[in-house]
């Protein structure tokens, strides 16, 4: 019996393995030869996941195993839903967040009544709207938007950037997110946000009382070519990029052509490097405010 074919890297119990036809002797051999990994008492995996998120997902799955009416929420739901990590630390350093109708603090279970969970490969988990609400209520706005904007795009259920940037799509997603609970972070959701870094920066700008920001805006350059601005404020375009984006000379040439075309069309241009943003967000906000003032004075 190939347990990897049956379970992949998901947690399983001895009873589940035997239920697939494995004999008691075969199970004992696997344990003695350490061909399986024990995550907690009575819960195993064929191997630990290669990546940090995967190992955390395994721990969440093990924590849910053999528990009825329990559900992963918060950080644990972020990991299961493959959402961004907003904590700037490894997943494995985050606590397991498992809820039920009654708290069992001795077992790390929080009170989480009235939740209708989704069923995932790792076990029951809060749905996307509930997960977004937890982010909006528990995280600072910049970090919350890293998660909420991705959820907003999934709820929009399209990759068409013209649709995502439309007011109709944005309002529809916000209405769905705030249907059960109306929180400021949910009202800021934008399905057109193209990266967690953009969402993080937008959150800091909102906290600095900047209004009128738009995400993923379609703009034509002076050449007539169609582009999308990461963020747009009036006539100021903000691009939030990682330095690893431009790997070749041609990448740099293409981006310079794009920037020149947009400038010739009358737009100001500010590039924010992701590495600098995460290191000192306040400094990047001040750079934005200075660029906005220069554009207004031009």
Explain the overall architecture.
The chain has 3 domains: 1-48; 52-126, no CATH class; 132-297, VSR Endonuclease (Endonuclease, Chain A). The mean pLDDT is 92. The protein is built from 14 helices and 12 strands. Strands 9-10-11-12 form a 4-stranded mixed beta sheet, with helices on both faces. Helix 6 (128-138) packs antiparallel against helix 7 and helix 7 packs across helix 9. It has helices spanning 3-7, 14-19, 24-32, 52-64, 75-80, 128-138, 141-156, 161-164, 167-177, 184-187, 196-207, 249-264, 274-279, 281-297; strands spanning 12-13, 37-40, 43-45, 71-72, 98-100, 109-111, 118-120, 123-125, 214-220, 226-233, 236-241, 268-273. Strand 7 (118-120) and strand 8 (123-125) form a beta hairpin. The protein starts with a helix and ends with a helix. With 298 residues, it is α+β, with helices and mostly antiparallel strands.
Provide a concise account of the structure shown:
With 298 residues, the chain is α+β, with helices and mostly antiparallel strands.
Question: Any chance you could write out the topology, listing elements then pairs?
Answer:
Elements: H1 3-7, E1 12-13, H2 14-19, H3 24-32, E2 37-40, E3 43-45, H4 52-64, E4 71-72, H5 75-80, E5 98-100, E6 109-111, E7 118-120, E8 123-125, H6 128-138, H7 141-156, H8 161-164, H9 167-177, H10 184-187, H11 196-207, E9 214-220, E10 226-233, E11 236-241, H12 249-264, E12 268-273, H13 274-279, H14 281-297
Parallel strand pairs: 5-6, 11-12
Antiparallel strand pairs: 1-3, 2-3, 4-5, 7-8, 9-10, 10-11
